Records
---
Amino acid sequence: MMRISDFQLKDIVNVTNGKKLGRLTDIEINSATGAISSLIIEQSGKKFGLFGKEEEIIILWMNIVKIGGDVILVRYGEKSSEEEER
């Protein structure tokens, strides 16, 4: 079994480009099933100056590729095959 605090210690890396997205700040849980539906990541670095709000990235559970000992690999920013056909 894994705790939320275990998730927060892991780096989250995008398998599309190999870049670190940030660290886990929150999770969304499906209240009907009790399963995790998505991970919420706060990107490092502020885009709007010193007092700016950090951007959040929401990764759906289905876009998690692998949860390893030190890292969570996710797919983020890829176009789906349906979008590519258009």
---
Amino acid sequence: MLGYFGPEGTFTHQALLSVSEDEATPFSTVAAALDAVRAEEIDAAMVPIENSVEGSVSATIDNLGSLDAPRLQIMQEVLVEVTFDLCARPGTTLDQVHRIITHPHAAAQVRDWLSLHLPEAEVIERGSTAAAAQAVSDPDSGFDAAVCAPIAGRLYGLVPLATDIADNDAAVTRFVLVGRPGRPALATGADKTTLVAYMRHDEPGALLSILQQFAVRGVNLCRIESRPTKTTLGNYCFNMDAEGHLDDFRVAAALMGLKRVCKDVIFLGSYARADQQLPNVPVGAKDSDYRAAGAWLEGLGGNMIINAPGSTSASNSDPDPTRSPSNS
């Protein structure tokens, strides 16, 4: 059983339908959807996490990165191109639109279009684009039109007064399917790992020590964002996406490095990239490079080797946190 941040007809609903067309449960907030996963009411929930124009969705990343909530894990990501229509009840004309309702992110992405075509209209920001379409479908709502996804307009019997009105025609929203912790799916070679790093001390070089764990191992970060820990003013953690998979030795080694220097590290999953973009792995950072270096050290009599993914060597007693290699 799956769930999603609703209501029906949102871009989140559209993202979920690309994964499964089975009946799913909508939730009124991101937190409610994720808590339903924790309570085992549903198996997984689709929630928004990032928009190419407006940035990260704080409700999602703060919930997933909280030290106080039971852990969850990203299983899959979905990218949805953002397309907005200005929808109204049948019979409404553009010059009759005086009050528009939409979601805050949608309002930001059509601001220029509205300023040009409806400069006198009042824009009210609430809930979701689907809820906006539902409100406009009620003649007594006081709203003349909604900026919403085409699917929402059709769902609530509205007609488009204008289509594809987003200011940025390349806008994309990223969604993630979140479930309970478990072994990540096998590496594909085009993967992403999401995690949250909590600094041990707020001191000069604290962030640098975190970034070095990735840099010296050839792991590229495709997103990094500081977020307040909600404890004291000025206390931050770092939510980030790294190119690669837990089964890549360079990523596993970076995670172990973080665990050594950070107060805490929350692993939020390794999963296939929706855009299938391959990482640019520098010389010396491939799994085969790590295995060759480990074999060389072992030949010298070294006994502090942590086995690379897929290695048959067992020169120490530490458990290998990874499995088979995804690149060579």
---
Amino acid sequence: MKQEGEIDSHSIAEARERIDAFVHWTPLMRSSAINKIAGCELIFKCENFQKVGAFKARGAANAVVKLPASQRKNGVATHSSGNHAAALARAASEIGIPAYIVMPSSAPETKKRAVKEYGGQIFECAPTLQAREEGLRSVVATYGAVFIPPYDHWDVIEGQATCAFEIFESSISLDVLLAPVGGGGLLAGTALAAHFFSPETKVIGAEPEGADDARRSFLAGKRIPLQQANSIADGLLTSLGEINFEIISKHVGDILTVSDKEIIAAMRLIYERMKLVVEPSCAVPLAVVLRNKAQFQGQQVGIILSGGNVDLARLPF
């Protein structure tokens, strides 16, 4: 495992080149209608158009491609109920190695189908963290596969950093850049990219009130694991990772929270005004801007739209 100092401007740029054949360079979009409502100039980085429908494709691809041949041969494994499962299965299939995914029985059928379509082998378990971790240990012991965590991993964080790197490569000057935070892979990567490529840009994390361990950890100066989570933003209902917390503590300016009602309103606004399919977790940063208009008034504000894997039969509006 590398140390933080090994993720620098060169390694992030190299990661973008490394994963170029595996991911999209996603577009930047604006909405004059939402700008008027928010009172600032918003630039949306559309990872809902990314491979597997989410930014997770970046970190998974980077981690898999960086594996030496001696570790690749037995494949990769993880436990995930969401986008990382599909992202890892796809990255593995791209280089011709197996992927073993431990998924809770409660995982959405759409997510299970995606993993299977990308060639991943699913091992179902009870919907508890203990069952997931035990299932993973069994799979690793049986197949000798390499465990690729969804966010608490240097190569995954390095891959996620390429998202913000693309924004700065576009020569856009941002006062603030917001990213949602669950496990913290995207926010940590975003913070590092800003630190190296646009140090004048303040990075802010956006989090649901019902899963606010990142904000509480940030304010306390120590990692406080999530005990209970209750939010419509299902992609953010996980504890902040240890590596991620260390990076976020050093390089993130603030973490702000919003209610589910505000998340749903922001999500609906994106659908209505931008005609984009986004999942609830994806709308959290916009909800933060709309809740704190005075803080962002008149500024150039970047928002990472993290993904668009939503069950259209269960839209909250």
